[in-house]
Amino acid sequence: xxxxxxxxxxxxxxxxxxxxxxxxxxxxxxxxxxxxxxxxxxxxxxxxxxxxxxxxxxxxxxxxxxxxxxxxxxxxxxxxxxxxxxxxxxxxxxxxxxxxxxxxxxxxxxxxxxxxxxxxxxxxxxxxxxxxxxxxxxxxxxxxxxxxxxxxxxxxxxxxxxxxxxxxxxxxxxxxxxxxxxxxxxxxxxxxxxxxxxxxxxxxxxxxxxxxxxxxxxxxxxxxxxxxxxxxxxxxxxxxxxxxxxxxxxxxxxxxxxxxxxxxxxxxxxxxxxxxxxxxxxxxxxxxxxxxxxxxxxxxxxxxxxxxxxxxxxxxxxxxxxxxxxxxxxxxxxxxxxxxxxxxxxxxxxxxxxxxxxxxxxxxxxxx
Length: 368
What we know:
- The protein is α+β, with helices and mostly antiparallel strands.
- The protein has helices spanning 24-36, 50-54, 88-97, 136-149, 209-255, 260-265, 267-303, 311-319, 326-367, and strands spanning 3-9, 11-15, 20-23, 41-48, 56-59, 78-85, 108-115, 121-125, 155-159, 167-173, 183-188, 195-201.
């Protein structure tokens, strides 16, 4: 019986430039030239539909996948496949760089990047069976290699974490009765390391084992793409929150120790900054609501079908998403607002008292 281990990540070949105008066919031609220029890469193959080839790709700002931006281009169907050779000494360099205690054992890998409606998903595997225990490490190696070697003025290599996905996958041929094409035998959650996800497929059909492997990739693609879409949403939300934190810190540095006299000099600036902070919070809450709604729509699309395998991963990942202290930040802004309002009230009281005293003095002079 054949078996194979594979790792999963989210890899993408995006645009390095801020302004781009080309069609899908030109993009693929250029990407093939870039990949072909790397001597370690061969057997490059693209599968796509006619719509992508004819579609116009226009971009007017730089997009980065790991910043929460959507992948661009993001075709409904595109598969990028190639073989890659990475010598053990180069792999050791990457592992040493991150202080990872792993000794490379093979040098030839197969890369399959498949786009779906959500995000691109990368599957990496090898038919050299000595590479059995930690296939997710191949994701790390090839990620670092592509970062270092994809050098071009137009196209760049992008990825989003976690790449590798926090699991090692295995597929084996085995006579197994199941209503599904693939039978998910177990998800083993290990302590202090990645989970193991084991699949079996019957060995009765006439497909080659490599064809069965690619069919499994296709079967898993949408669920894994959804996982990385959650990651992208979380990155967008985190960036929005960091912007609020930066502006609040700037505000506090500017006005924390401001004297009463100084507050008289810049009331309009203070009001403007407080209003900006309130608007930032409102924008963030709108972003949060919109992304959560979009995610739930995506979640329902995936899990309304009959067969799925990784729902628990996506549910747990969603539950582990960060919560943001919006209410506490609103209270901090409100305290600044009340402090400023109190100063204004004191100013009004002082001015009123001065005017009242002046009027009283004038009247006394007139009466006398």
